[in-house]
């Protein structure tokens, strides 16, 4: 009631950026995910610290992009309704709207989160799920946040958009057990394709997380995983559990879009600060 235009303002700004650079959609979705998994969805991933020991300085977060979109949306909101909308809410909205721009699913974003004042590099390292994790570890990571095995497999489907680099798969395709072998859970033809893109000393080249469909938000990721073409161990290991494997094998456009929306709403409520807790930051990179 106090800022009825809030969602429209954020959507307008997000559309301006993502329509010019569609690859930002994957980056902004990932940023929201990385925010919620560390101290809850409190905007702590956006903070900077004088000693560079904030979440954004942790190795898994060094490749985050799109901070400028969140800042631009926040600036536009501050002009219209100052001190009302938290950076945590802005990030949750931006992630949803960015996915919508590339014709992915839409989900409702309940608002009223407040911003945290603490951001620690070590928290990010301890809480973010690793691309090298097995299914047991991943299920525990998600359970710790109140998310179940279905949320795990559905949210892994976010890898249908976006890119990674050779650095994260090099060992997997060239020296998996230290004997110059590749990970046996990978399709040999996929390993050959990856070796063409990544030489043994290449840690920079870009790889699609959903080969052949990385710009489109669709269930193709699950088709790839079912064919043993998951880029990360954390993708391939979805076949190591009955529940997640069944989802991988049966996902289709209708079920995936609905399930993704449902799981994103759940994710957006993880450990949130409301009421008198936290604050409404004036600038997203700094506590008040």
TrEMBL record:
Q: Which residues bind Ca(2+) 2?
A: 160, 210, 218
Cofactor note, please? Answer: Binds 1 heme b (iron(II)-protoporphyrin IX) group per subunit.
Q: Which GO terms describe its cellular component?
A: extracellular region; vacuole
Reaction(s) this enzyme catalyzes, per UniProt: 2 a phenolic donor + H2O2 = 2 a phenolic radical donor + 2 H2O
Query: Disulfide bonds, which pairs?
Result: 3-81, 36-41, 87-284, 166-198
Q: Does the keyword Heme apply?
A: yes
Lineage, top-rank taxon, reads: Eukaryota
Coiled-coil residue windows: none
Top-level EC class, please? oxidoreductase
Q: Where is this site: Transition state stabilizer?
A: 30
Location of this chain's protein in the cell: Secreted; Vacuole
- Recorded GO MF terms: heme binding; lactoperoxidase activity; metal ion binding
Residue positions annotated to bind Ca(2+) 1 are: 35, 38, 40, 42, 44, 55
CDD domains named in the record: secretory_peroxidase
The record's keywords, sorted A to Z, are:
Calcium, Disulfide bond, Glycoprotein, Heme, Hydrogen peroxide, Iron, Metal-binding, Oxidoreductase, Peroxidase, Secreted, Signal
Which co-factor is required?
A: heme b; Ca(2+)
Keyword Signal appears in the UniProt entry: yes
> Could you say which residues bind substrate here?
129
The record places domain Plant heme peroxidase family profile at: 1-288
> Which residues are named in the active-site annotation?
34
Name the family the entry cites. Answer: Belongs to the peroxidase family. Classical plant (class III) peroxidase subfamily. Belongs to the peroxidase family. Ascorbate peroxidase subfamily.
This molecule's function is given as: Removal of H(2)O(2), oxidation of toxic reductants, biosynthesis and degradation of lignin, suberization, auxin catabolism, response to environmental stresses such as wounding, pathogen attack and oxidative stress. These functions might be dependent on each isozyme/isoform in each plant tissue.
Q: What is this protein called?
A: Peroxidase
**What is the species of this protein?**
Arabidopsis lyrata subsp. lyrata (Lyre-leaved rock-cress)
């Amino acid at each position: 009631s106090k800022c009825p235009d809030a969602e429209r303002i954020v959507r307008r700004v997000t559309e301006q950026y993502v329509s010019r650079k569609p690859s930002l959609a994957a980056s902004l979705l990932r940023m929201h995910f990385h925010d919620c998994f560390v101290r809850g969805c409190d905007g702590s991933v956006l903070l900077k610290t004088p000693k560079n020991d904030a979440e954004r300085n942790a190795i898994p977060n060094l490749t985050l992009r799109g901070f400028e979109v969140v800042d631009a949306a926040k600036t536009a909101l501050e002009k219209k309704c100052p001190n009302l909308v938290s950076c945590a809410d802005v990030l949750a909205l931006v992630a949803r709207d960015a996915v919508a721009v590339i014709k992915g699913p839409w989900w409702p974003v309940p608002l009223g989160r407040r911003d945290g004042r603490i951001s620690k590099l070590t928290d990010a390292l301890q809480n973010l799920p690793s691309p090298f994790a097995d299914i047991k570890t991943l299920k525990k990571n998600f359970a710790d946040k109140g998310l179940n095995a279905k949320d795990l497999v559905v949210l892994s489907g976010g890898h249908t958009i976006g890119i990674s680099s050779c650095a994260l798969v090099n060992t997997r395709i060239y020296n998996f057990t230290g004997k110059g072998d590749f990970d046996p859970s990978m399709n040999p033809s996929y390993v050959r394709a990856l070796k063409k893109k990544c030489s043994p000393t290449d840690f920079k080249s870009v790889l699609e997380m959903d080969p052949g469909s990385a710009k489109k938000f669709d269930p193709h990721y699950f088709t790839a995983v079912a064919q043993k073409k998951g880029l990360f161990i954390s993708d391939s290991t979805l076949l190591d559990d009955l529940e997640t494997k069944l989802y991988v094998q049966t996902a289709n456009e209708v079920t995936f879009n609905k399930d993704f929306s449902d799981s994103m709403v759940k994710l957006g409520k993880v450990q949130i600060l409301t009421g008198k807790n936290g604050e409404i930051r004036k600038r997203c990179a700094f506590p008040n």
